[in-house]
Specification:
By secondary structure, the protein is an alpha/beta fold. The protein is 28% helix and 16% strand. The protein has five helices and seven strands; from the N terminus they run ββαββαβαβαβα. The strands form two sheets. The chain has a five-stranded mixed β-sheet, sandwiched between helices. The protein has a two-stranded antiparallel ribbon with strand order 1-2. A hairpin with a 2-residue loop joins strand 1 and strand 2. Helix 2 packs parallel to helix 3 and helix 4 crosses helix 5. The longest helix is centred in the C-terminal third of the chain and has 12 residues. The protein is globular, with a radius of gyration of 16 Å. It starts with 15 loop residues before the first strand and ends in an 18-residue tail after the last helix.
Length: 171
């Protein structure tokens, strides 16, 4: 199985290159990693449609508005993973806005037809690079986000397993 890997940057600021069927803004922008605390991440997620924070450095959302990209960059975000198909309307030039904000970009289209093991591997590889964090993973309404992140959250201990106490339900 072929995985998308980021390589040492020899390009100019925020270039986009084709690598293993995924486009990545290379990490020429900054070598430092940023970390936001849980309260800061929640505050940002609350500003996004269907926003959430399954981990301390990954936010999830539905389709953000055009002004969200610069807000995310100012807050310290480094990357955006877009799970929408290229033909889905976004209401703005998402790729251009993300590039202008200085964020790394991984378009990883997910549909019933396009979902494969490769999709999960590419996301896992992108998540594994600390220089990509904090990041936003989004689709139209965050449904595909949940489907793609779930396999990464259980092994990392971010979700309860069968031995953990389950939340109580109201009947």
């Amino acid at each position: 199985m072929h995985c998308a890997k980021m390589h040492e940057c020899v390009y100019s600021y925020n270039d986009v290159v084709h690598m293993s069927d995924a486009l990545l803004h290379l990490d020429c922008m900054s070598e430092r990693t940023n970390s936001l605390d849980e309260a800061e991440m929640k505050k940002i997620a609350d500003l996004l449609p269907y926003g959430g924070c399954p981990t301390r450095d990954v936010a999830t959302a539905g389709q953000p508005e055009a002004q969200a990209w610069s807000m995310l960059a100012r807050a310290g975000f480094k990357s955006v993973v877009d799970l929408r198909e290229p033909g889905e309307p976004r209401g703005h030039d998402e790729t251009g806005e993300i590039a202008r904000a200085g964020l790394r970009y991984l378009p990883l289209p997910v549909s019933r037809e396009a979902l494969s093991d490769r999709t999960f591997v590419v996301l896992r590889d992108f998540l594994s690079y600390p220089q990509n964090h904090p990041m936003l993973v989004h689709c139209q309404c965050a449904t595909r986000v949940c489907s793609l992140l779930l396999p990464h959250l259980v092994p990392s201990g971010h979700l309860p397993t069968s031995g953990d106490p389950q939340p109580s339900t109201t009947r």
